[in-house]
Specification:
By secondary structure, the protein is an alpha/beta fold. About 50% of the residues lie in helices and about 20% in strands. The protein has 14 helices and 17 strands. Strands 2-1-3-4-5 form a 5-stranded parallel sheet, with helices on both faces. It is rod-shaped, with a radius of gyration of 52 Å. The chain starts with 8 loop residues before the first strand and ends in a 15-residue tail after the last strand.
């Protein structure tokens, strides 16, 4: 085979020795390397052993003719040029040789050897062109394969980067309406590319209705402003969950400045939004707790100062009365001091109880609501009897799940309040009932007492809040009830049409074990 460092080698397969010698002599004088064979069989062996650059092949030969030898060569090495040499009477054989893969043919007798040289040079040039073209094609295919591999790797890196950053890219052809999404957008939206085709109508169907107009604004902005933009939008996933994402986009325009397409990215910010909302909620809770702590500090200071001033004042009077020998006054002074001390003790006990209610007093358990109410009413027996209140308990009360002791405190406080604020009712009536709603129980304590102005429906659950400052109590009772209910994962609220209309306290409690019992709920009525 010819290389850049060697001269072309020509195999001459010719049974006529005189013709063969004349061709050999002519081509050797022109610098070619020569191989010889007297028939097709020998020529095939020489070809297989030496791989010549060109074969000059006579067609009519003994042992194996040229057509048979040609078939072997073109099958084993189609890139090897074969020039057949045929007598003028065998044109049909020359045509058949061309059909079998011969590159050219010459007619015998060869009157001008220049014709032979031209034929050899022509097929050599053609073979070189074929070789270079094949090398170029193979090189191009290699480059394409390498570039394809690089692009595949880049695409894989891009997909990984988008997955890690929760960012996908999209394209919207304004004229055709065709929308293309990257894999990450399908993942963000929880959709399968095999079953969901992103088009304007299908995208609008999963877009939050409040955010739908943003798409029209996007197009208008891209057409009018020729500036990139950013917007925030929400979509519904197939499972019903909502994802929030920000989309950064820009328009692409033709030479006349007409909008052709819009390209953009979608960044899933759902978790960030949740974190922001949680942070805002935490800040609001902290602000509320700080405000409560300020009220707590002020109230403790104020409410403890009163009994202390009373005690101090009566101690002075006690000393004076004892010095004057006023025995009767001494007894009154002692009673006043004892009363102030009792009020202080009750106040401190309520504060201590409120501080403890953040944790359960005992392990949660199934508790019959009927038993809880009975125990609470039993603890208030004296007050209920003295006021002549009628306690009506609905039949078939459900079973609750929680800390029995704390739940008794809830009903005890609510019933005690109903008795205490019965107003001027001759026959106070307190109704207690409940109903099941999915996995929770809604309990109610209704009275026909003085009622509560709607302005104070939320305020009464605040610490130290008393609608009637002249009434009994420390203002801790309902705050204590709310804390207990929230620790159980429930909520509490009051409904009343106002003065003289009575009031109904509602609270939700679990009817079965909850993993979150002990963690306050953020629910609101």
């Amino acid at each position: 085979m010819m290389t850049s460092e060697s001269l072309p080698t020509i195999l001459i397969v010719e049974d006529d020795a005189s013709v063969r010698r004349s061709i050999v002599a002519y081509l050797e004088d022109r610098g070619f390397g020569i191989l010889e064979a007297e028939n097709g069989a020998v020529g095939l062996e020489v070809f297989r052993r030496n791989k010549p650059d060109v074969i000059l092949l006579d067609l009519r030969m003994p042992v194996m003719d040229g057509l048979e030898a040609l078939s072997h060569v073109t099958r084993e090495s189609p890139d090897t040029p074969v020039v057949v040499i045929s007598g003028t009477g065998a044109i049909a054989n020359a045509v058949e040789a061309l059909h079998r893969g011969a590159w050219d043919y010459l007619l015998k007798p060869i009157e001008h050897m220049d014709i032979l040289l031209h034929g050899v040079q022509t097929v050599l040039e053609r073979a070189e062109l074929i070789r270079k073209n094949r090398e170029y094609r193979e090189g191009l295919e290699k480059q394409v394969a390498e570039r394809t591999a690089e692009l595949a790797a880049t695409q894989a890196d891009l997909i990984s980067a988008q997955r890690l950053a929760h960012v996908g890219n999209w394209t919207w052809d304004v004229h055709s309406g065709e929308v293309t999404w990257s894999d990450e957008i399908f993942r963000i939206f929880g959709l399968d590319p095999a079953t969901f085709t992103p088009q304007i109508d299908s995208i609008m169907a999963i877009t939050h209705p409040d955010d739908g107009p943003l798409d029209k604004e996007l197009i208008a902005r891209a057409i009018e402003c020729h500036e990139p933009g950013v917007y925030e939008q929400r979509i519904f996933r197939p499972d019903g969950s909502v994802r929030t994402f920000t989309s950064t986009f820009e328009g692409q325009y033709d030479e006349q400045g007409n909008l052709v397409r819009i390209v953009g990215t979608a960044h899933d910010i759902t978790e960030r939004k949740r974190a922001e909302q949680e942070r805002e909620r935490t800040i609001a809770e902290l602000e509320a707790k700080n405000a409560e702590l300020e009220r707590y500090t002020y109230t403790v200071s104020h409410d403890l100062k009163g009994p202390l001033i009373t005690i101090k004042g009566f101690l002075g009077m006690l000393a004076q009365d004892m010095a004057d020998g006023k025995t009767k006054q001494v007894q009154d002074d002692l009673k006043s001091i004892a009363g102030a001390a009792d009020r202080m003790l009750a106040f401190l006990n309520d504060l201590l109880e409120l501080s403890r209610v953040g944790r359960l007093a005992s392990e949660p358990e199934d508790v019959a609501m009927e038993a809880l109410v009975a125990e609470a009413v039993g603890l208030l027996g004296g007050a209920v009897h003295e006021r002549g209140a009628q306690i009506i308990v609905a039949p078939d009360l459900p079973t609750l799940f929680g800390d029995r002791r704390r739940l008794v405190e809830v009903f005890q406080n609510l019933i005690e309040n109903a008795v205490k604020y019965a107003g001027d009712r001759a026959h106070p009536r307190i109704e207690i009932g409940a109903e099941r709603q999915e996995k929770q129980i809604v309990c109610r304590v209704r009275d026909n007492g003085r009622g509560i102005d709607p302005r104070y429906h939320e305020r009464i659950f605040g610490l130290f809040e008393q609608i009637d400052p002249t009434g009994e109590g420390t203002g801790v009772g309902l705050a204590l009830v709310r804390r207990i209910v929230e620790v159980h994962g429930g909520r509490i609220w009051v409904e009343s049409e106002g003065e003289g209309k009575g009031a109904t306290f509602f609270l939700t409690l679990p009817s079965q074990p909850r993993s979150s019992v002990g963690e306050p709920s953020r629910g609101t009525p």
